[in-house]
Each structure stands twice: as structure tokens, then as C-alpha cells.
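Item description
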Amino acid sequence: MDEVYDVIVLGTGLTECILSGLLSVEGKKVLHMDRNDYYGGDSASLNLTQLYRKFRPDQPPPAELGRDRDYAIDLIPKFIISSGELTRILVHTDVTRYLEFKQIAGSFVFRDGKISKVPSTEMEAVRSPLMGIFEKRRAKKFFEFLQNWKDDDPATHQGIDLDKDTMKAVYEKFGLEPGTQDFIGHAMALHLDDDYINKVARPTYDRIVLYTSSMARYGKSPYIYPLYGLGELPQSFARLSAIYGGTYMLDKKIDEIITDPATGKFLGVRSGKETVKAKQVIGDPSYFGGGTSGASDGGKVRVLEEGKVIRAICILKHPIPGTDNADSVQIIIPQNQVNRRNDIYIASVSSTHNVCAKDVYVAIVSTIVETSRPEQEIEPGLALLGPIYAKFVSVTPLYIPTSSGTEDNIFITRSYDATSHFETVVEDVQDVWKRVFGSDLVLKKREVEVTE
């Protein structure tokens, strides 16, 4: 192989596939390689056989679960915020033509030992057990303040400076109770922990506005989800890349990342006896020493301080109790409710989304690991599911690159975090893009279609 590419992309996770698609559209000559024989890397959706092979290699899937091909079970559960950045990228690149989306039926929050729906209409808010009557009035004033805020009109600021005042100060201004703060910060702003309270209010304001505008877009919940599972997302971006001339090689072992001995700069990739050259490489951490990589790492990735994420994929024969038999939900357990530092997330989908057989539900419980007994940490989440037919648990380290990559032309993405949506994945895409090109990724706006 004497061809020289502009960029070699290693791994077909969603982050890498989005970058590959965007680079190909920009006219770059891209070679995309993956050691697996399926798309998606860590963010793949597996059929039953693949799922059992990964977690229980010595056990075939039970026949009563039905046909293999009816399943597409996500390894990493995340929903798409309908007005969020991933939607903008999907629409901008026209990748939406390969995908069909369905709404997630409801968003719930765990409070005082039970789950309650996050209100999606004013009527639901009035009836919601999440707040007492006086607190509802205070919360209404808080949301009206957010809705009416205009940066250039001080009359709408009520003496608050979103870029200087902390979120704590904003909550106190409206006299909101700790339980309401929990619900707003975790179920709407979708913060993983309470660190945000003592930081400036602007990012939380932006997050709440994103949540409410997404909620208003289709009603019911702010989330959409692709039919046939999240594995469809990387495949669709791979298709986009291929249309613009990108080359794909699956099931290709990466034996060596070749660098110039004198300068340390990236030269190419070796697979067996073949070597491919390129000016730059973009890859997930597993190709650079993160996890069970065969490639040499040279200290290019490190584990984040918060360390690891635990995820339990649970197969159920019933909808989650207390969700009004919803075919899909997100449930957030704010950390304060269970004396933790990080929230626990539950994402559930069903045959309505073409990811499992009829009358089967898939619920994935996840959180950031805080102790030496991770499975015990997700117990509050598992307890909400009712009887569990089968459970597959993984504990994954969170890796980030140790350098920007501009010195050696090796650009490494981050591991997928514990958040329940794709906004941080897009932040990583934007970050890598800026590192590669030295300028921001700019997208235009179009509309996305959702099937009811």
C-alpha cells in the first residue's frame, strides 16, 4: 500500500465516525480502520449472539428471547437531545436520510424513594408531586425569569449576572428548596454531580434552555432515539464518509503506530505486513494504550480522576414499574437522593425502537464508580426495574489524551462518559476538530424529522 492519506482514523465509535464523515465532506482523503468486525466500537449495538459472546462466552442466548436479528442492544446508553448539537450535525450533514428517529416517551426523576415524571407541560407541572403549592409558584417565577432573559436587556436580569453569579446565588434569589434544585440541576440541566452549584450560572442556564426547548419541540420528552439502536449512528456517518471517498477496513488488527524516531511525528499504521502512511491519525484511546490495546502507547492517554463507569445492561420482560407502562424512559437518580457524589442513570427502550423482541425491554443502569464495589453502587437503579431476566455488567475506565496532538499529529478522542446524552460526544468532536485544524467546526441549521 503506497498510497498516502490525509488522515487515518482508528476505531469506528461515534466520535471517530462523525469526524471521518466531516473530514471526507471537507475533501480530505480518509482511511478508516477498526480491529472489530462491526461498526461502533465502544458505542456499538449488538445482537443477542454478540452480546452473550462478549459477556458470557460460554453460554448461548436463551431461545425464549427470540430471534437474534430482532436485537440491537447498545453497549453505551445515550439519548439524543432533540435541539442539541448532535441533531445539528445529523441535519447539517444530511445523515438523517439514513436514519429514522422515535421519541423517548418520558423523562423521570427519583425523589424521596419514588419516581416522578419530569413535567413536559404546564398542566403536568401543576399536578406534579415534585413540588408543593408554594414551591410551584417560586419555580414558576424561576422558569419565567429564564424564559424572559435577554442578554442585551438589563430589565430582564432581575439583578443577576449569569457570567458572574453562581447557580447557588440564582437558586437562593428565587428561594428554591434543595429538592427543587436537585430536580432542576440533574433532571433538566443534566449535571452529573453538584459541582456546578458553585460555578457561574451561564452554562446551567444554557443547559436548562436546551432541555426546555427540546421538550417543547415534540412534547412528552426532550429525547429522540434512532430505530435499530445507537449503532446506526456511526454506520450512517461511515456511509457519509464513503460517499465522499472515505475508505473503510473492518476486522483489521492494528499492530503498530509508526512515528518518526527523530521527531516523534506520526508516519503511518502497520497491520501485519502492510503499512499505510498518512499525515495525521485520529483514534480512540484503546489504540494508544487505553484498555486492551495491542498498539504501543508511549504514555499518550491517562485515566481520568473520576476513573471508571459501571453499566449494567438488563433484559426485562415488562416495562419499568411506575412509568405508566412507557415503552421508553430515562430515569435520573440525583446523587443527593442516594448519598452519592454522582447521579445514577437509567435508559430504557423496547421493541417499539426495533432493538429487541416484542414484550422485551432493555434497561441500562449506569454511573461513575466511587467505591471498590461498583455493582453495589447501582443497586438503587436496579431496584427500580422490577424482576430482571438477564444482566450484563461492565466496568470501563475513562481515558483522555495526555496532549493536544499538534506536536506529533496524533489526535486522540476521549472515552464515552456517564452522561445520558450525546452533548459531551459532540464537544469532543469539536475539540478534536479544533486541534486538527486550529479553527472551530461551523455548522448550518436545517430541520430533523421524527416519527410519532
Q: What stands out?
A: The first strand starts at residue 4 and ends at 10. DSSP finds twelve helices and 19 strands in the chain. The chain has a mean pLDDT of 91.
